[in-house]
Amino acid sequence: MTVSYKDLGLVNSRELFKKAVKGGYAIPAYNFNNMEQLQAIIQACVETESPVILQVSKGAREYANQTLLRYMAQGAVEYAKEISGGKGIPIVLHLDHGPDFETCKSCIDLGFSSVMIDGSKLPFDENVEQTKRVVEYAHKFDVTVEGELGVLAGIEDDVEAAKHIYTQPEEVEEFVRRTGVDSLAIAIGTSHGAFKFKPGDDPKIRLDILAEIEKRIPGFPIVLHGSSSVPQDLVKIINENGGKLKDAIGIGEDQLRAASKSAVCKINIDSDGRLAMTAAVRKVFNEKPAEFDPRKYLGPARAALKELYMRKNREVLGSAGHAYDK
Question: Per the domain annotation, does 231 fall within a domain?
């Protein structure tokens, strides 16, 4: 039995991306694995009046169970209405880095409103065929599909690559045309995980490649993965309270803001949220070693995550105030 995401109060990404491209902002795509993360995401996006994409990775599906995550997302829709005086906000439930057709189909059948099929490590023609197959199934249910060209280095939630391969602008037109995909994740210098770069590096997003891609597929929704900035104040708090995060370095937020003003209309952020929560939990454990009530350390972690994401929406992605765009 297939569950329609529309019956759950969710939306797909199609209209949201059109508005984001037109408005010069990016919609936040935040990963969640548990209740505290979900609460923080919804609170932050309601208070900043931002649309949001709730992302479920392969690791999250294994950790929390995809059925539970689906019902949590359904609950998030009602929660958003409750804390916004009934208005709610647009919420997409998205599969992040779907590894194959079967996984994407399973999520579509369970009520996800958007899926990503990641064929980026395959030869071009195989990537096209796999992506096209997912698109043909998803579109029967008005579910939107994200594909990927190029490979991001780094490690995060079972997504691993040792070498970074930039997206080739000359391939994007053919890929979009042959697959019918709704959005395209590209590799232009971002990287998965908290240890993206080495000390002394000057990480730069290849905005020149982005500009060339925009020329070839004007107005088409572009996605950036691996876009955590790894705030050094959070790294410091973690290390001062017993952590050992050596040389954790991310992408400059100024570069992300520049990218979000273009056709980049979805930016994925996960590691920064993990850092914010970990910093808060470690601080509680260090300052109150007798504490054993999970609410007393997960509560501060939730609050820290909310504050981080509110700032991201306002200052980095530019999505604040756009939940009700016409």
Answer: no
Give me 68's structure tokens: 């539970």
Catalytic residue among 96, 157, 270, 272: 96
Q: Is 322 domain-assigned? A: no
Token pair belonging to 221: 């929704």
Residue 306: which of 16, 17, 50, 25 has the closest Cα? 50
How far apart are the C-alpha atoms of 162 and 164, rounded to whole Å?
7
Is residue 302 domain-resident?
Answer: no
**Range of 262's domain?**
7-225+253-270
Compute the Cα dihedral for 187, 190, 195, 201 and give only its sign.
Answer: positive
Is residue 187 included in any domain, yes or no? yes
Name the packing angle between helices 253-260 and 207-216 (round to 10°): 10
Task: State how many domains the chain has.
Answer: 1
CATH number assigned to the domain comprising residue 59: 3.20.20.70
Q: 254: which 2 tokens?
A: 């100024």
| Annotation marks residue 96 as catalytic | yes
Per residue of the chain (326 residues), give pLDDT as tens.
Answer: 789 999 999 999 999 999 999 999 999 999 999 999 999 999 999 999 999 999 999 889 899 988 888 899 999 999 999 999 999 999 999 999 999 999 999 999 999 999 999 998 899 999 999 999 999 999 999 999 999 998 765 444 555 444 557 889 999 999 999 999 999 999 887 655 544 445 555 667 888 999 999 999 999 999 998 778 889 999 999 999 999 988 777 888 888 888 888 889 999 999 999 999 999 999 999 999 999 999 999 999 999 999 999 999 999 999 999 999 98
Buried b / exposed e over 88-102, threshold 16 CB at 10 Å, is bbbbbbbbbbbbeee
